[in-house]
Design goal:
This protein is α/β, with parallel strands linked by helices. The protein has 7 helices and 6 strands; from the N terminus they run ααααββαβαββαβ. It is globular, with a radius of gyration of 16 Å.
Length: 199
């Protein structure tokens, strides 16, 4: 599933993305600006090839585009893609909305692996989302500072105290390190990992 490619051009692409996106977001919420900056910086050292990064971003965008037809679902469900594997997270009030999100992902992703981590519960409003965002940001900083793992090989979300991590590691010990870092992050109560081990 992983494609070897032109690693040398990654930094240039990331710098261009950062340069183009941020000036256009002068009126955007702080969360959007932070996310754009983080995405651009992470691309510089991402273990995936440029082609694979592009493929993952395209798959993510196509799923999100179809989810937009159901605004209440799109507003509550997060989509992350790494090496073609799709992770859905978030909180929706009805099972039917969870089924909608999963059906859309399956329709777009086809045979790609999908992890349905969407929770059915009340809540998931702006206050909860802001709290999760802050915890997730701290988790990202902690993973970046952890020794022995490449944090850019992980994508993560925090939802209601649960950290969800998808990505790739070179050994089972790196997976465990990432799990322990998450558990030691303030606000994280449990961890779910979807990490492929590829030495």
């Amino acid at each position: 599933m992983r494609v070897k490619g032109m690693q040398g051009g990654t930094a240039w692409v990331a710098m261009v993305v950062g340069t183009l996106v941020l000036p256009w977001c002068t009126g955007c919420p702080g969360m959007a600006i932070t996310t754009a900056a983080t995405t651009a910086a992470s691309a510089i050292v991402d273990d995936r090839s440029i082609e694979q990064q592009g493929s993952d971003l395209d798959l993510k965008a196509r799923i999100e585009q179809l989810l937009a037809d159901a605004p209440s679902v799109a507003a509550r469900v997060n989509v992350d893609v790494y090496l073609g594997r799709v992770m859905l997270t978030g909180v929706v009030p009805r099972r039917s909305e969870r089924r909608t999100a999963l059906a859309v992902a399956r329709n777009v992703a086809g045979d790609h692996e999908i992890f349905d981590d969407v929770e059915v519960a009340q809540g998931g409003g702006l206050t909860d989302a802001a709290g999760d965002f802050a915890i997730n940001k701290e988790l990202g900083v902690n993973l970046l500072g952890a020794e022995g793992i490449a944090s850019q090989s992980f994508q993560h979300r925090v939802v209601n105290g649960t950290a969800f991590i998808i990505g790739q590691a070179k050994s089972a010990s790196q997976v465990e390190t990432a799990r322990q870092v998450a558990l030691q992050t303030s606000g994280v109560q449990q961890v779910v990992t979807h990490i492929v081990v590829e030495p």
